[in-house]
Amino acid sequence: xxxxxxxxxxxxxxxxxxxxxxxxxxxGESPTxxxxxxSLEKGLVSFSINGELVPSVIDTLTNTITATMPDGVxxxxxxxxxxxxxxxxxxxxxTAVAGSAVIDLTSQPVLTVSSPDNVRHTSFTIVLQTELQYxxxxxxxxxxxxxxKNYDFYYDQFDGSPFQAINCGPTVATMAIKWADPFFNKKPxxxxxxxxxxxxxxxxxxxQQYLNxxxxxxxxxxxxxxxxxxxxxxxxxxxxxxxxDMYSVPFNSLAYxxxxxxxxxxxxxxxxxxxxxxxxxxxxxxxLEVYDxxxxxxxxxxxxxxQYLGQDRYYVSSDIKAATDIWWPYAIIVAPKGKxxxxxxxxxNSITKPIPDARGQ
Length: 361
Description:
The protein is α+β, with helices and mostly antiparallel strands. The chain has two domains: 41-135, Immunoglobulin-like (Sandwich); 143-334, Alpha-Beta Complex (Cathepsin B, Chain A), CATH 3.90.70.10. The protein has helices spanning 2-26, 131-135, 168-180, 188-194, 204-213, 226-235, 317-327, and strands at residues 44-49, 54-59, 64-69, 78-84, 89-92, 95-97, 100-103, 110-114, 121-130, 143-146, 218-222, 239-245, 271-281, 286-291, 313-316, 330-334. The strands form three sheets. Strands 10, 11, 12, 13, 14, 15 and 16 form a seven-stranded antiparallel sheet that branches. It has a six-stranded mixed sheet with strand order 2-3-9-8-5-6. Strands 1-4-7 form a three-stranded antiparallel sheet, with no helix packed on it.
C-alpha cells in the first residue's frame, strides 16, 4: 500500500509540474480572442440645442448631456444638433435620427450612438439645467415673487465718490426709493451729502430718515423667520432692507454663479445693508433675491454679460438668518410711494445700531 501511495504521489507531481511549465510558457503570449469593447463613448463628437444659454456638456463618466436653457422657454419642442464620429449611427429614444432631432426635455430623452453592426454602443441621458440652476440655485424652483421694474434701479456703491467703500447704506436707500418712485433721480452720493456728509457708517435710522425725506413709507419689523417674513412682505408688494454681518454669509468662488457672497470679508463685524426684492422657493431652501451694492465695478461675463455681480444675487435664507441674528435681527419694510406698510408682527419705533465700515477689499 505504501508503494502504491508513493507511486501515485510521484505521478501527480510530474503531471502538476508539466502543467505549470505549460502555463508559464503561454503567459507571455497574446490571447487568441481579444475581449469585445461594447462602448462607443467617442462616437458623439458634439451636441447643442437651439437657444441654449451655454454650450451643452457631454460627460462620458456619467453618460449624460447637460443642456442649460433659459427660464420660461418651452422645453417640450427643442431642436438638438449633434456631430457623430465616422461610421456611427444615432437614435433618440430608439428612433433613428440623422444630424438633428426634436426633443422634449420634460422626459429626459436618451441619445444612443452605435456602430453599424450595433455591437458597440453608448447611451447618453439628456438632462435639463435651468438658468437658475446654472446660477447656483439648487433644485427645481417651486414658487417665488420678484418685485422687478421695467426700469433699472440698481446702483453700485463704488461710484468713485469719496466714501464709496462705506456707502452701502446710502446706496441701498437710494435703490429702495428709485424702486418706490420711478421719477426719483438722485444718486447714492446725493444721499451721503444729506446725511453724514463728512463720512461715517449709516445707521438703520439713517435709512428710514432718508426714505421718509423722499416720501417713502417704511416700518421696522422683527425677524424671527427670515424666509417666511421676507416672502410675506414681498408677496404684499413691499421691499425688505436687511442689516447683517456679511462675514457669516458663505463665499462662492464660482464667478459665473449668482448665489451667495461674491467678495471676501476680513472678519466678524462686517456690517452691511442688503436690499431684498424677491425670493425663490425650492424643495430644500428659500433663496432671497437680493440687490447687493458691493459690486466694486465687477460684472458677469457669461449669460448676463454687463450685469453687476451684486445685481440679482441669491442668498440662502438660513445663512441670512444667521447673519442677521448676530448683527441686527430686524428688517426695514419699504412700501411703494403713496402706500403705507401694514404688518402684523411686533414693530420697534427706533433702532440705532450702527453699521460698521464695510471695507472695500
